[in-house]
């Protein structure tokens, strides 16, 4: 797996990155790089786009055409890029706030269109960048700077939402289960259609500290215990299912890809025009 | 190339002008009175191999339009007031990262939902100041269907030349009216394309300026430049360092590039000014009424002149100051509560009296109304 | 497995989080003054976990 | 011709706007005059009144709207009531013979009454073609447009399967005036 | 009631001021450098039975804030530039339907993401012209933590009195600094509540004005008035008729109510002006540097005066015109590329020379810099 | 069922409405009125809020506190109203464009929070108000003014999306099945939590005409044939399932309501304060 | 069913769409010059469908 | 006292900002002087340098930032390097005895070196309390604040379970100067 050339995908002069020591964002970013490599993407033809957040800083460290957009809008920018040049491989990096709060609408519509973009959501259950406000994926009851008495909001299962919205490839894993994560991203990239990979991760600085969950290691141990392979999860008792969450490939389905459809439309109307003209 | 006369709606003229300018991507969200632009592109673009996408909202439409531009296509979006308000954040992003594209605002009577099918020029200050923070703005306002074709082409040219979003502000009158127009032949129009870098990819700095015009060359995504872009203040490499020096340098460059091309992009028409003591200054559809009012008044022997501002932003400081020096009074008719007249007053600097003439509730201003005011002020 | 061993590719980037140590199945790595050090290279089985899990892209597992 | 202001009005769905566009298009094609066409949008466009305006001029058309109409087509009582006051006394009015004239004082010199709806219903067989009947009559009345030109535009602008019907209605209206 | 001195951050002062004014609802979305406001409300509101909600985005936050107001609570939201841009459409709706509420913009250096933690006054024109269409704007800009408390209370009072959203523009300096303040005692402050209708529900017209102030009384939802509200132009009954007359009447009323209360809401501080030949005009954090520069220059014998604009919109036309009449030169230091100075120039109408002094890249303007310019111009 | 007093819920002086003859929007509006009546809501304490579109005009005809907001944002306004005064009954009226295109984000988050608002989506598969551009629920292949060669977008199943996002009551029926629709809305109103009712309807003027589907009657016949009660649908062949859609109650679940939770929070922190203070 | 019969409550609002006729299970209603008319009241079984389905709130089914 | 400008600087996480806030709060409570406190935000706040400024004055404080500091606390080499140039020659510098002084020319009249980190590590047992040690020393050096007042504020502003530790560190710093 280790590629001696993996360094070529990093902007090494921009490293070390700004993330906190032990932040899972680095692990996920490394996983994306390996997945791009495994999937065999042409580095020149790959565009990485993010929104705003700690996660949003990832593209700055990656040696592709990279775009750090506005909060929540990465998928809309990426949709424009992909439509304009379907030959480009699009990777979108988003956070749970960026992608599931302010960017929720672009997410569900990208899923619906089944446009060939691979989205990786760095889900740390908190607004990291802005110092720890709760996000749509913050567990109910947890503390956050805007939930000083415990969060009363219900936690989004974003993968589930993406599936219902029409994503044709959905997977979830964690910063602990990095090998699985790499494989899910790799296959998401290879998938012809919209793929969504939820990368569950730890933000010990903002989320962990406020909720007494310990450091990166403790939080990763928690992931290890609580994220269960889909099949194993299915065999759990109802009570256990309340607590534990699934990981692995959650959905894979074939449906015609959006830019393919548009290119076919162009062909069709141009052919019609020729006949008429 | 067809050059016969055709009957075109103003909104259709945007489509025709854009196609002549080489547009290949449209992303939008429908809204009255701009929807015919989206509809026209949905029909025409695939015929030339271009792409049309209807996005989930205007925020997404603005984002996708910038995305299309970064991928290398001439890109456009169209909306009206409510949608234009929604586009502001991403419009500012486009200005900051210097993404050429054209944003059409076919304006209707606001605020809010207002009078959706009535004309207005109530967004004229918003086109300048709508997004947060300092930023340059380039805004063109046609008054006829025929100059909608021309100004759409120019909007693309300016945007490519300056590497900045250009706003094309049609008011509802211009957007919805039909007129006979002679479309220019494709080979008769000047087309400007963005500067692209020279192919040297090692140590490529996406925001490094080579010439005098403060405009850095721009690669297409996929050409192997591997460059970074962000809405944060950045240095020549495209990366943020969080430093005031970088911010200062970048903001100055964003402003200076517009200053540099100022004469080229400032489109102002003057008429009957040589002997005038009064002038009427107008833009957009009102310029039509103004011009005809001036002609009527001249026929009655009044020494009145006319200035049409086609490039409403950057504000034509010099031209207006000269005008104020020349005449005693400047009448500024507008379809709003009195917006652009503030700028005219400022630029006139007390040298001429500046008199607003406003209709702000969806009505047009007729030539007769303007003529009356000319007569009053004479 | 081919004969692979861990290597410190970018020592300056190490932030001393200790995650590589935590995930290494054997006893190879140690923190020295807040930075990673390969103290028992012979133990390394080349499993690559440390490379994959390091959030700071510090380690590489290469054929020796 | 310096400036000739035409207004076509009726109820929504009667096709006054389409008739206005066809008229403007034909004038464009003939390339002798400038033309500016505008129309009502908004709540009126659904259900209520509907209106198109066509300005024809040798010169550049500055103001694109009717200020005082030279010609008014009114297909309904309420359209007539609304727009008659803005018709020049020296202008012309084209109405269906059944339309109710409330304010006779306002009538212009020239009033042309023809059985627009009757022709559409009885001769053409589709009341919805009344707009084309009226357009035919207008074409016959105006000296600045050409019948052939208008017919070409009709063929282009109406749905393919209704071209014949519309042309028939147009001719019927035209004939009613010239014959 | 505690009236001892406390150390408060500007953002905390907004929370304290709002609570004193009777706020009971906050809807927001976090953004630097305003997040402490949301955080403060999330902690404080439930203690007084008020409600806090973190919405999915700023568009929703602005909408929910207006909703809270319609339900009868004093409501507030807070954001910074990017979020303020996103709020523009619904802010215009709030102005159109006349929903009292307070919108805080703790401004940072734009455009776009800019420099998120650096101060700026780059949104000052956006606060006036950010939403589409004509509309009135009431905007207050405190310069100290202590007057942040006061102006927050006033923002609520003005908003209730005028039935319109009021914008409170803190710059990052004021938002993030801590100062010792004496909080006013609850019983020592004047609180204004919106006029509510008299209980006569038959034929209730929600936009009918009874008094002279052009402000219609406003019922709370749930009081049985069964009234309708829309962002379309509407008549006194609240219903749209698509008529220009209604639009004209409504727009005039929206403008006239602000005119009516103009003197009451125009907060301008003047100092050392009696003998001044030069004046420094400033708002927000810059007013602090300006005031101290003026004092330094006075100590050096220069006849320089000072004007602080606390109500930046509506523009204090009269006060600035008077100032221009009195002095020869007006220096306008701003943390932007030169925005408010345009309005000062306009209002000065050539009577005084207006000199901009700008820092637009996240730096503050120090007293020394302003003093130097005073000396130069002396 | 018919209530002699039903007229009291209408603003009779605003009628007849602006909708086209035979438009299903009137049928759905009538159904809402009957549901409000059946559910026994206090007219004084009921607020009806809409966005922009033909559907957005409905509140203007209803005699409650009514609010016609901006395009897509009705649920966000309603959330503010409900939070500020949880005693009010909130009905949100939205369109497929209003609620599923521009307003998608507010929809999924209202579902997630499980705030007690009843949302009725007038789903006519088109942007009616703006003259027939395709919407997220326009069937693939259909014609629209912005899909002159046939729509290539995938049709959203908005009910499905609402369920995945966390709505605790979801039902779907059609303008043909008006009795079922009334019952679904009635029960949605009674449900303590977020309820979403998808009212499938016909827009013959914009959607029907462009797609040769006939007038209101023909389009309602089509609904009759193609919308199948959930249980009957489950027994269809796979091929039939591709074509036919479900109607009826799709989901009903108990989960603590958002404003209830907030009121509990207030109690809790005030109690804590007393203890401390 | 109690003895209920259809009634035209707001004749002016009728837009003549014919939906009530289409959904009436028996033969009661007819369009007369584009407006609804109750031509065979005796047939009415009071099922209320017309009231519920009329998009223009024209009809009421009331106890007689 | 007209205007006294204090700057506290160090690396992110060393607590210079908290010390600054506590200082400002205590001055507020004593209610003898006006105080304005500001701090660095932004990328610096994560990982990099960190800085708080406290202006103390009898008069109204106009400009809230340090122009030329009267007092500088520098906890790291790089903080010293960065901020020393802005310290008045007549001012005071408080540094850890191990901090490296690059530019000796810039040193002010009064330089106080104390083993801040050593005290924190060895005496208090937690290196993270260095900021409180420094604050203790500053309290002893400044004549305008009261030890008791600061202690009250510390008790309020640090996490409940660390109050004792922090007070201990504070006292240790204080004692090092006065004893
Ligand atoms: C329009 C807008 N609103 C708000 C913000 C402030 N903001 C920046 S990042 C962020 C949240 C980041 O959270 P998440 O997406 O989960 O990313 P993380 O930092 O946790 O990786 C917010 C609210 C912004 N930059 N722009
Ligand atoms: C911000 C904004 N964007 C666009 C519009 C234009 N617009 C008004 S209604 C509408 C679509 C309505 O469709 P739908 O919600 O399905 O309602 P329908 O008319 O079909 O009932 C659009 C795009 C607007 N008013 N505001
Ligand atoms: S704040 Fe959290 S998400 Fe951000 S870098 Fe630190 S640990 Fe990572
Ligand atoms: S490669 Fe495996 S065994 Fe070797 S150091 Fe890394 S984790 Fe340990
Ligand atoms: S995981 Fe990486 S950063 Fe952390 S200690 Fe190991 S090498 Fe250093
Ligand atoms: S356009 Fe369609 S949705 Fe709108 S009123 Fe007409 S039929 Fe109904
Ligand atoms: S109540 Fe039933 S039977 Fe009677 S007219 Fe109505 S639909 Fe027909
Ligand atoms: S359904 Fe209503 S509107 Fe239609 S014909 Fe019958 S009564 Fe008239
Ligand atoms: Mg996050
Ligand atoms: Mg619809």
User: What's the domain count of chain A?
Assistant: 1
Oligomer: heterooctamer
How much helix is in the residues of chain D?
A: 25-40%
CATH topology of chain D: Pyruvate-ferredoxin Oxidoreductase, domain 3
Portion in beta strands of chain D: 15-25%
What does this structure look like?
The complex is a heterooctamer, with 2 copies of chain A (277 residues), 2 copies of chain B (378 residues), 2 copies of chain C (64 residues) and 2 copies of chain D (179 residues). Chain A has 277 residues and is α/β, with parallel strands linked by helices. Helix content of chain A is 41%, strand content 17%. Chain A has one domain: Rossmann fold, CATH 3.40.50.970. Chain A contains 11 helices and 8 strands. Chain A has an 8-stranded mixed beta sheet with strand order 2-1-3-4-6-5-8-7, sandwiched between helices. Chain B has 378 residues and is an alpha/beta fold. Chain B has 2 domains: 4-188, 3-Layer(aba) Sandwich (Rossmann fold), CATH 3.40.50.970; 269-377, Rossmann fold (3-Layer(aba) Sandwich). In chain B, 39% of the residues lie in helices and 22% in strands. Chain B has 13 helices and 16 strands. Chain B has helices at 10-21, 35-44, 58-70, 81-97, 124-129, 145-162, 172-176, 244-260, 262-265, 286-299, 317-326, 340-348, 367-377, and strands spanning 5-9, 23-28, 51-54, 74-79, 101-109, 115-119, 138-140, 165-171, 178-182, 228-230, 268-271, 278-282, 304-309, 311-313, 329-334, 353-358. In chain B, strands 2, 3, 4, 5, 6, 7, 8 and 14 form an 8-stranded mixed beta sheet that branches. Chain B has a 5-stranded mixed beta sheet with strand order 11-13-12-15-16, sandwiched between helices. A two-stranded antiparallel sheet of chain B has the order 1-9. The longest helix of chain B has 18 residues, at 145-162. Chain C is an alpha+beta fold and 64 residues long. Chain C has one domain (4-63): 2-Layer Sandwich (Alpha-Beta Plaits). Chain C is built from 2 helices and 4 strands. Chain C has helices at 19-23, 49-53, and strands at 4-8, 29-32, 35-38, 59-63. In chain C, strand 2 and strand 3 form a beta hairpin. Chain C is globular. In chain C, 38% of the residues are buried. Chain D is an alpha/beta fold. Chain D has a single domain (4-178), classed as Pyruvate-ferredoxin oxidoreductase, PFOR, domain III (Pyruvate-ferredoxin Oxidoreductase, domain 3). In chain D, helix 2 (77-83) links the parallel strand 4 and strand 5. The radius of gyration of chain D is 15 Å and the shape is globular. Strand 9 of chain E pairs antiparallel with strand 2 of chain H, so a sheet runs across the interface. The structure holds thiamine diphosphate (2 copies), iron/sulfur cluster (SF4) (6 copies) and magnesium ion (2 copies).
């Amino acid at each position: 797996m280790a590629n001696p050339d993996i360094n070529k995908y990093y902007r090494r002069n921009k490293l070390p990155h700004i993330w906190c020591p032990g932040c899972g964002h680095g692990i996920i970013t490394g996983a994306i790089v390996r997945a791009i490599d495994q999937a065999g993407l042409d580095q020149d033809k790959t565009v990485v786009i993010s929104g705003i957040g700690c996660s949003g800083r990832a593209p700055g460290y990656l040696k592709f055409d990279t775009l750090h957009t506005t909060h929540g809008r990465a998928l809309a920018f990426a949709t424009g890029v992909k439509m304009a040049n379907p030959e480009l491989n699009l990777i979108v990096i988003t956070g749970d706030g960026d992608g599931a709060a302010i960017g929720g609408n672009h997410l569900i519509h990208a899923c619906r269109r089944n446009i060939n973009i691979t989205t990786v959501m760095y889900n740390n259950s908190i607004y990291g960048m802005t110092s720890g406000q709760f996000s749509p994926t913050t567990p109910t009851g947890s503390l956050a700077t805007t939930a000083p008495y415990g969060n009363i909001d219900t936690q989004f299962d974003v993968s589930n939402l993406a599936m219902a919205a029409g994503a044709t490839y959905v997977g979830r894993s964690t910063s602990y289960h990095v090998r699985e994560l790499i494989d899910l991203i790799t296959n998401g990239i290879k998938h012809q259609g919209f793929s969504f990979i939820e990368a569950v991760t730890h933000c010990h600085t903002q989320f962990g500290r406020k909720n007494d969950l310990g450091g990166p290691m403790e939080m990763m141990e928690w992931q290890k215990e609580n994220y269960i392979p889909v099949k194993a999860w299915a065999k759990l008792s109802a009570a256990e299912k309340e607590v534990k969450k699934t990981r692995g490939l959650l959905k894979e389905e074939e449906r015609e890809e959006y830019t393919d459809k548009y290119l076919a439309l162009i062909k069709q109307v141009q052919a019609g025009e020729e006949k008429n003209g | 190339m067809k050059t016969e006369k055709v009957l075109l709606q103003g909104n259709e003229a945007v489509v025709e002008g854009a196609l002549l300018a080489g547009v290949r991507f449209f992303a939008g969200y429908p809204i009255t009175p701009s929807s015919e632009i989206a509809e026209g592109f949905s029909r025409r673009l695939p015929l030339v191999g271009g792409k049309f996408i209807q996005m989930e909202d205007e925020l997404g439409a603005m984002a996708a339009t910038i995305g299309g531009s970064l991928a290398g296509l001439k890109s456009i979006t169209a909306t009206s007031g409510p949608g234009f308000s929604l586009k502001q954040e991403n419009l500012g992003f486009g200005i900051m990262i210097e993404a050429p594209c054209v944003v059409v605002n076919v304006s209707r009577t606001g605020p809010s939902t207002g009078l959706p099918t009535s004309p207005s020029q109530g967004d004229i200050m918003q086109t300048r100041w709508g997004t947060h923070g300092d930023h340059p703005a380039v805004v063109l306002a046609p008054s006829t269907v025929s100059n909608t074709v021309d100004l759409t082409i120019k909007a693309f040219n300016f945007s490519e030349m300056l590497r900045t979003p250009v706003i094309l502000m049609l008011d509802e009158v211009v957007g919805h009216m039909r007129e006979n127009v002679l479309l220019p032949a494709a080979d008769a129009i000047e087309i400007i394309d963005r500067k692209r870098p020279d192919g040297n990819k090692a140590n490529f700095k996406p925001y490094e300026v080579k010439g005098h015009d403060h405009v850095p060359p721009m690669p297409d995504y996929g050409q192997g430049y591997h460059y970074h872009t962000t809405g944060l203040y950045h240095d020549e490499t495209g990366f943020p360092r969080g430093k005031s020096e970088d911010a200062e340098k970048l903001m100055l460059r964003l402003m200076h590039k517009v200053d540099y091309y100022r004469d080229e992009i400032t489109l102002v028409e003057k008429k009957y000014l040589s002997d005038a003591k009064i002038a009427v200054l107008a833009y957009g559809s009102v310029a039509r009424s103004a011009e005809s009012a001036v002609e009527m008044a001249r026929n009655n022997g009044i020494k009145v002149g006319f200035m049409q501002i086609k490039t409403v932003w950057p504000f034509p400081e010099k031209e207006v100051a000269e005008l104020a020096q020349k005449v005693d009074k400047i009448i500024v008719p507008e379809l709003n509560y009195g917006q652009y007249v503030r700028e005219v007053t400022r630029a006139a600097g007390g040298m001429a009296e500046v008199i607003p003439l406003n209709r702000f509730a969806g009505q047009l201003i007729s030539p007769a109304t303007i003529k009356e005011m000319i007569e009053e002020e004479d | 497995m081919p004969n692979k061993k861990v290597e410190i590719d970018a020592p300056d980037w190490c932030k001393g989080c200790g995650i590589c140590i935590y995930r290494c199945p054997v006893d190879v790595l140690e923190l020295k003054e807040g930075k990673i050090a390969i103290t028992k290279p012979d133990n390394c089985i080349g499993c690559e976990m440390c490379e994959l899990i390091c959030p700071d892209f510090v380690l590489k597992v290469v054929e020796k | 011709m310096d400036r000739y202001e035409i207004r076509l009005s009726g109820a929504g769905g009667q096709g006054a706007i389409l008739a206005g566009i066809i008229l403007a298009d034909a004038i464009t094609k003939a390339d002798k005059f400038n033309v500016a066409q505008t129309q009502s949008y908004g709540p009126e466009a659904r259900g209520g009144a509907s209106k198109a305006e066509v300005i024809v001029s040798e010169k550049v058309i500055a103001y694109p709207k009717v200020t005082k109409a030279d010609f008014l087509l009114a297909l309904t009582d309420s359209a007539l009531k609304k727009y008659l006051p803005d018709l020049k006394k020296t202008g012309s009015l084209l109405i269906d013979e059944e339309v109710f004239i409330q304010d006779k004082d306002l009538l212009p010199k020239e009033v042309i009454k023809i059985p627009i709806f009757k022709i559409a219903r009885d001769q053409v067989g589709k009341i919805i073609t009344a707009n084309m009947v009226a357009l035919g009559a207008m074409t016959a009345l105006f000296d600045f447009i050409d019948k052939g030109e208008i017919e070409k535009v009709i063929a282009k602008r109406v749905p393919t399967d209704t071209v014949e019907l519309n042309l028939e209605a147009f001719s019927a209206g035209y004939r009613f005036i010239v014959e």
